[in-house]
Amino acid sequence: MKNFFQSVRLALVMVLIPLLFGCGGGKVDPVNAAPVAVAIPENSVSLGAGETYQFTATVTGHSNTAVTWSLSGCTGAACGTITPTGFYTAPSLIPTEATVRITATSKADPTKFDSVAVHHMCVAVSIAPPGATVIPGATLSVTAAVQHDINHAGVTWALGPACSGTCGTLSNVTPSSVTYTAPATVPNPPTVTLTATSITDPNETAEVNITVSVTGTLAEGDYAFVFNGWEIRTTQPGYYVPLGVTAAGHFHADANGNITNGVEDINLESGVSKSVPFTGSYSVGSDRRGSFTITTAQGATTYRMTVDASGSKGKFIKFDAAPIGAPISGTGYFELQDKAAFSLTALAGDYAMGMSGTAIANRIAAVGRFTVDTAGAFSSGKMDVTLQTHIGVDPQVSSTNLTLAGSFSAPSPSTGRGTAALALSPAPSGVTGNLNFAYYVISDEKILLVQTDTRGSAVPVLSGEVRRQNGSFSATSFVGPAIFSMTGVNRANYGAEIVHAAVGQMVSDGSGSVTGTIDDNGGQYQGTMNKAFTGSYSEDPSGRSTMALQLGPGTTDSEIAYFFGPNEAFLMQTSGTDVLFGSLKPQSAGAFTFASVAGTFPTATAAPASEQAENDCGLTSFDGVGGITLTMDVNSDSVRDPQDWLHHFDFTGTYTVAANGRGTLTSAPIRPIVFWIISPTELVGMGAVDPSSPWSALLEYEK
Fold it and tell me: Fewer Cβ neighbours under 10 Å: the N or C end of the chain?
């Protein structure tokens, strides 16, 4: 019996061994212990006609790692070819986009494979800029790029359709770029088409529509304006006192060169003049540069200006040396008014406010917010004020989170002028808490202010803007990139006031942290260019934000901002010795290139500059590939040479643009300028070296 059971046990073992270990009699091939698998690293590949790609495949689970390559989803020549080693060549002609599949199949186990999609791409032509508006006689550089062109042949260029007279001319023609010169007069039709055609595949093209436009006048309508500058009073030979000047007002332009129904409020050392009537005349050339003269009972004043392409807004500088003995220089802007907003009902809502000016010889700035009802009464108001106490030596004094009360009177239905009374409690350090203004409505989104109190030891001279707030605010109201610009003046050790300006980029994470880059001329020859910083911020539901920016070990700049839109705010520095005031604006998406700023930008000095800064007004034209031309009217420093007061300059030069929107502009004999792109229609810049240079003031570029 024992032998019987041993025999049965042996038989079972002999049956199970093949079942458990296969026919190998129990020998295991360690390579084949795992299932066979094939893998191609790419998910998809895009190729143009004739382009090639080396594919690879990895086989696991077997010692034989060879594969067979095959094509599917196509027929004949449309498939292209693939070698036994996986080297693929796309078809020599791709009339329409298509997709084929390349498959790698295991030779050890033909049931195992992997595949990848290959997209056959037609030749594609792109062009920059995608569209443009130029003035007669202006030039525009256009570039083209061709993708999926194995020959890298580039493009040919052509103008059309047919125009009455001439469509313009092409020069500097290459397979990747061309310079367009507009005709001397507007063609008919005014929009011409520049076409780039692929040399490799003439069926593939791209077009840019170029409109040749002349704004020969202002659009007919009502305008509001604000002006800031300096009055230079010489008390004795070699000694002078600079005094801040500000004005705001309204006028009607009739589109025929006549200014009527003018009214302005002016705050001078000699006193405040309210609701001063004036008339005048103006002219605008084909290049959108012009001049205007206004006449009051006290005499005539002349200005130079540039007008935007729509003819609805412009920038200007004072362009005379009057009055004799106490000349005034300065800069301003005007905008077309919306008369539908000339009522308290239209103005009711939430607003942010930003102002700057002078307090005796010191600089002052104020930022805040309020809600105004249909009767003109303010509520939920708050304000922060910063004042220099000893210019260039002692830290400034900031009075923060003050309570703001006040009211608007009803605006005039014909001019949009009203009055505003503000009451701050407690009174800010060094100045009165009760401030009175004239205001001028541009729209229910924007109002201009000029202070109408007679200046005194505790009474400043302020002007600025009021901007409507839309919705509540939080840290997420500031997210992504924004461009900031601030300006003020510095009088180190009681010397002449010199410009202090700062521009740069802030990038917020929407959760309280920022990174950025700053260009700061620093005052008194201490420039900081292209410096990285980090920082933090907080923002409450009213739009008030505090910021702390770390510029280096032991160096912290403190700012207060009042937001009135996403990434858009009035900005005031509350640290250091100089009062800096400015704005934060949302930056459009990059990356930026030469072509991002192609075109002509009306250019002017931003206020406030110092009494020694040049006030510039003119045009800066970027050709889209690194060249610039400038045409500028300049009201320069009258202190050193009162006879050498008014100038006109024409410059050429070069520019650079980085991917983050930071650019430089060089044009002898002026010193270099650094600028930041806010959008393809708006830039802001300043002198990049030597803050004592007149070109260190902020310059605004806006199409």
Answer: N
Q: Which residues contact 639 (CB under 8 A, 6 or more apart)?
A: 232, 240, 496, 611, 612
Cα radius of gyration (the chain):
35
d(CA 108, CA 340): 82
pLDDT value, residue 559: 93
CB 89 within 8 A of CB 60: no
Q: Spell out the domain ranges in the chain.
A: 1-29, 34-121, 124-212
Q: Are the C-beta atoms of residues 192 and 285 closer than 8 Å to each other?
A: no
At 199 the pLDDT is 93
Cα distance between residue 566 and residue 572, in whole Å:
18
* Sequence-ordered list of residues with C-beta below 8 angstroms from that of 4, at least 6 positions apart, any chain: none
For 669-703, what is each residue's pLDDT tens digit?
Answer: 666 889 999 998 899 998 765 544 545 578 898 87
- pLDDT lower than 70: segments of the chain: 1-33, 164-165, 214-217, 233-242, 324-326, 360-361, 389-395, 490-498, 522-527, 552, 608-613, 637-645, 668-671, 688-696
| Buried b or exposed e, range 524-533, using 16+ CB within 10 angstroms | beebbbeeeb
Task: Tell me yes or no: is domain 124-212 CATH 2.60.40.10.
Answer: yes
Evaluated on CA atoms 354, 357, 359, 362, the torsion sign reads: positive
**CATH, domain range 34-121:** 2.60.40.60
pLDDT of 638 reads 47
Distance, in Å, from the CA atom of 304 to the CA atom of 318, rounded to the nearest integer, reads 7
